[in-house]
Design goal:
The complex is a heterodimer. Chain A is an alpha/beta fold. Helix content of chain A is about 40%, strand content about 20%. Chain A contains ten helices and twelve strands. In chain A, the strands form three sheets. An eight-stranded parallel barrel of chain A has the order 1-2-3-4-7-8-9-12, surrounded by four helices. In chain A, strands 5-6 form a two-stranded antiparallel ribbon. A two-stranded antiparallel sheet of chain A has the order 10-11. Chain A is globular. Chain A starts with 16 loop residues before the first strand and ends with a helix. Chain B is mainly alpha-helical. Chain B is elongated. Chains A and B meet through helix 2, helix 3, strand 5, strand 6 and helix 4 of A and helix 1 and helix 3 of B.
């Protein structure tokens, strides 16, 4: 299957640190135009009109935008919601995003939307289903999409394909790229006893189109066992920064995004997180990158 | 090996009915009970759906308080889970649910507050669209204009309420809890025009006759039947107000050619 080429008129997302834009920061970003290389938004927040879309169009005038969906459910066994897919395609036509992405997970079954990124069994059957849905997604938005690795809190007994290899296969078969969420890799590896370095090593570097960074929390269950929860409600932790540096060493310079959704802090906190990410990007991506940064 | 359909169906049963029996056997144990793992996903589902309701129904949430709202939302999500990934359109059944929700029975105007919240939510999230231009209507000529059937602008909603809940809506926007205690909530059926305007939403109260006239105007009744010699002057003025405030959808190209 052929890769979907992005039309050249779309502003590409620079291989620099960007920030996830949320409603409480709209007014500040629209009026103050802070120095941020690019923004990513959740597609579902802009499917209507009015003030949110007007704010995004204003930001879009001088910043590249990435559209990141959370509601398409690429892993649904009973297919994609065509209305939702149409809304994403309409938004993409309007915003002309530099990147467009979704998740390797499922959220809907039998006409109910479960409002979370639920884990897929990593089997050949699920791989076929995800590839079919990614093909439809890329066909509808008429460009290459990025697919993100999820955080997970459980594994299926009958899974046969390691997650990184599953993602690599989706990229190979559909021509999509991979959105490598380093925090999700860290969370899932900690929860399941996987090796994060081996996970990174199994991802095809040329397919990585973007990296996500976020905070997570640690929950202690009644039996004293801990589980890490991907809640995007705190700064990126030290282990995730180190894993990010390892990812840049392996993949080279990529667009990287700071995501923060719960207990959203003031915008300058996000800018400081982005500056830390930029520093690591500059110091770990070779002489070409440093020249570019200077 | 279970199929993907079987896995998703079993997982769905855990999420909706708290019945983990079908999915649990397919999970790796790994030192954590299946119920604890599934609970993480179920909690996210419940909290995201409740948060979407809270955004759509701010007046209801303000009236009943956080704890009551959480309980009502949890019961509602169980009966009416979201259908699509576009959560701005989640919760259309909440007013009817509250009308039959025994713990809310003492707050007789709560379903009306919910109806108003939902109308505001629809108007606020509606697609951008051109409004009917009065000049375009005039340009049609009398005969063509008389046979026109107008429709509501997408960012305008018309809602019939029994209680003056617009006063509660305004009190919440003003953060005025004192005003709430002074409100007299006697039945007084009327209509509200809810219109997105700039970054906000505006309300216009109509009496029953004005509301029915407006509903007919915006619901596709031919103009000639509504705006004629016998039309009361206050209704003609109201029609002019709706037109000047952009409350009708723009004419489709095909009608402009007619």
């Amino acid at each position: 299957m052929a890769a979907h080429e992005a039309p050249s008129r779309f502003d590409p997302i620079p291989a620099r640190a960007g920030i996830g834009l949320r409603f409480p920061h709209h007014e500040f970003v629209v009026t103050e135009r802070p120095c941020v290389s690019w923004f990513e938004v959740h597609s579902e927040n802009y499917m209507g009109g009015g003030a949110p879309l007007r704010a995004l169009m204003s930001v879009r005038r001088d910043r590249a935008i990435s559209l990141h969906g959370v509601g398409l459910s690429l892993g649904s066994a009973d297919g994609l919601d065509q209305t939702h897919l149409g809304r994403i395609a309409d938004l993409a036509a309007r915003i002309e995003p530099g990147l467009i992405s979704e998740h390797m997970s499922w959220s809907a079954y039998g006409g109910t939307y479960f409002a979370d990124l639920l884990p897929l069994p990593l089997t050949e059957e699920a791989l076929d289903m995800v590839c079919r849905n990614v093909d439809r997604f890329q066909g509808a938005v008429r460009r290459r999409a990025l697919i993100e690795n999820p955080s997970s809190y459980m594994q299926y007994r009958h899974s046969t394909i390691p997650e990184a290899e599953f993602l690599a296969a989706v990229a190979r078969r559909t021509g999509c790229g991979i959105l490598c969420d380093v925090n999700n890799i860290f969370v899932s590896c900690a929860n399941h006893g996987w090796d994060a370095q081996r996970y990174l090593a199994a991802l095809p570097g040329e397919a990585i189109g973007e990296i996500h960074l976020a905070g997570h929390s640690i929950r202690t269950l009644a039996n004293g066992v801990t589980i890490r929860i991907d809640d995007h409600g705190s700064p990126v932790c030290g282990e995730v920064w180190r894993l990010f540096a390892a990812a840049i060493d392996r993949f080279g310079r990529k667009p990287v995004l700071i995501e923060w959704d719960n207990a959203l802090p003031s915008f300058d906190v996000l800018q400081r997180e982005a500056a830390t990410a930029q520093g690591i990007l500059d110091s770990h991506s070779g002489s070409e990158a440093r020249a570019d940064a200077a | 090996m279970p199929t993907l359909h079987e896995i998703e169906r079993a997982f769905a049963r855990s999420m909706l009915a708290r019945d983990d029996s079908a999915i649990a056997e397919h999970l790796v144990a790994g030192g954590i009970a299946a119920a604890d793992r599934l609970c993480i996903y179920r909690n996210t589902f419940a909290s995201v759906a409740a948060a979407a309701l809270r955004i759509a129904y701010p007046t209801v949430a303000w009236l009943v308080g956080e704890e009551f709202f959480e309980g009502a939302a949890a019961a509602f999500v169980g009966q009416h889970p979201p259908r699509t990934g576009y959560l701005n359109e989640y919760g259309v059944e909440f007013a009817a649910f509250l009308a039959d929700f025994p713990p809310a029975a003492s707050l007789c105007y709560l379903p009306d507050a919910a109806r108003l919240d939902w109308a505001v939510n629809l108007a606020a999230n509606a697609a951008d669209a051109p409004a009917l231009d009065a000049a375009a209507l005039v340009a049609l000529g009398d005969d063509a204009a008389a046979s026109m059937r107008l429709s509501r602008h997408p960012a305008v909603e018309l809602v019939r309420v029994r209680y003056p809940v617009e006063a509660v809506w305004c009190a919440r926007l003003d953060h005025n809890e004192d005003a709430l205690t002074k409100l007299v909530m006697e039945p007084a059926p009327h209509w509200l025009v809810v219109q997105r305007s700039g970054d906000g939403v505006r309300l216009r109260s109509l009496d029953l006759a004005e509301g029915e006239f407006t509903a007919a105007l915006m619901g596709g009744t031919a103009l000639a039947a509504l705006v004629c010699d016998g039309t009361p002057s206050e209704h003609l003025l109201l029609f002019a107000e709706h037109l000047s405030r952009g409350r009708f959808a723009g004419l489709p190209a095909i009608d402009r050619r007619a």
